[in-house]
Design brief:
The chain is an all-alpha fold. The chain contains three helices and no strands.
Length: about 90
């Protein structure tokens, strides 16, 4: 009947919206995890290359991000790329 069909469509629509919200939450969580991994990788590289502890490496990233008006993750990506490039060029010599 028309009433049953409307109920079914309402339930399907609600499920669709619920799935979309859950999908968005998953994407956000995955993005945050990737950013956290990038920050940890950059801190590790800073610690290795400059002989500093984790707290100092984190503060260094924070200062860089603030000075360049970047997110912490963007600053971490920049640091990682630069230190990897410097490490590779040092190995070639």
């Amino acid at each position: 009947s028309a009433r049953d069909l409307k109920s079914i469509l309402d339930i399907a629509s609600a499920r669709f919206h619920q799935f979309n919200r859950m999908s968005a939450q998953l994407q956000k969580a995955e993005s945050e995890l990737a950013n956290r991994k990038e920050i940890d990788r950059a801190k590790s590289l800073l610690m290795r290359h400059h002989g500093i502890d984790e707290d100092e490496a984190h503060k260094t990233l924070q200062r860089l991000a603030m000075n360049q008006r970047l997110s912490l993750a963007e600053a971490a990506r920049n640091v990682s790329a630069m230190l990897k490039a410097l490490g590779q060029s040092g190995k070639e010599k």
